[in-house]
Amino acid sequence: MFSAEELARLRGFPEINRAELIRYFTLTGADEAFVRQFRTGRNVLGVAVQLCTLPWLGFVPDEVALAPDAAVGRLSQRLGIAMGELRGYGEREQTRTDHLREVAAYVGWRSMDTAEWKDLDEFLFTRAMEHDSPKLLFRLACEYLLSSRVIRPGVILLLRRVAAARACARTETWARVRHLLTDRRCAELDLLLVPDAYLGRTPLAWARPHRARPR
Predict the structure, then answer these.
(1) Exposed, middle or buried: residue 182 (CB in 10 Å: 0-12, 13-18, 19+)?
(2) Which residue, among 53, 55, 54, 31, has the nearest Cα to 44 in the 3D structure?
(3) Which pLDDT tens digits describe the chain residue by residue (215 residues)?
(4) How far is Cα 7 from Cα 22, in angstroms, rounded to an integer?
(5) 84 Cβ partners below 8 Å, 6+ apart?
(6) More exposed terminus of the chain, fewer Cβ within 10 Å: N or C?
(7) Is 85 within 8 Å of 77 (Cβ atoms)?
(8) Closest Cα to residue 28, out of 51, 45, 50, 46?
């Protein structure tokens, strides 16, 4: 579904524009009080990056130190902590995940649990009955989780859910149309795939709308 390069982009930080920088990387007084509880400069800045990244992306990349320089610089200036302090943050995975759990509780986000997975599966199945594109379904799932304030799970886990939803949708679609596929209708549909000598293509290809050629 995705190339290795695309998967890497989905797991990491994208570029950030000015509107996103101001909207997501502006700390309130309460936010600053929350992050300063983590004492060391490295942890304070690292938690601040996680706090601002979660509502921006719907998840926090593992390599927190690779956050956009503009975002880190904005937080660095507000907190009075050098940007270099972020180097090495998250080297111990447990520390980073523990901090993310505290951040999520502070901002009212939830992790995936059995109920959340069930809701996501139902959402994906409904969308898969309308669209078969796996990339579109993946994007819709990310948007759904973001709007529901649920932390996006790993890319592979989400892709497996998309694949399962598509398989269920195909089974359901077949169950709904099977009674329409009489022997005669199947024969007529098969003829659409037989190349026509006069047209030089199959009737199905000929009937498809063509884009206007550039002049």
Answers:
(1) exposed
(2) 31
(3) 788 999 999 999 999 999 999 999 999 999 999 999 998 999 999 999 999 999 999 999 999 999 999 999 999 999 999 999 999 897 888 999 999 999 999 999 999 999 999 999 999 999 999 998 999 999 999 999 999 999 999 999 999 999 999 999 999 998 988 888 888 888 888 888 888 877 778 888 877 765 544 44
(4) 27
(5) none
(6) C
(7) no
(8) 51
The token pair at 83 is: 């940007």
CA 72 – CA 45 distance, rounded (Å)? 8
Residue 215, pLDDT score: 44
The Cα 89–Cα 48 span in angstroms is 12
CB-side neighbour CA atoms (13 Å) of 132: 6
In angstroms, rounded to a whole number, what is the distance separating the alpha carbons of residues 11 and 33?
29
- Kindly tell me the sign of the dihedral angle through the C-alpha atoms of 197, 198, 199, 202: negative
Between the CA of residue 181 and those of 133, 135, 169, 213, what are the distances in Å? Answer: 24, 30, 18, 37
Phi, psi at residue 57, to the nearest 5°?
-105, -20
Cα of first residue to Cα of last residue in the chain, in angstroms, is 34
SS3 state of residue 204: helix
- What's the DSSP call for residue 196? B
- For residue 93, give every residue at least 6 positions away whose Cβ sits within 8 Å of its Cβ, in sequence order, or none: 62
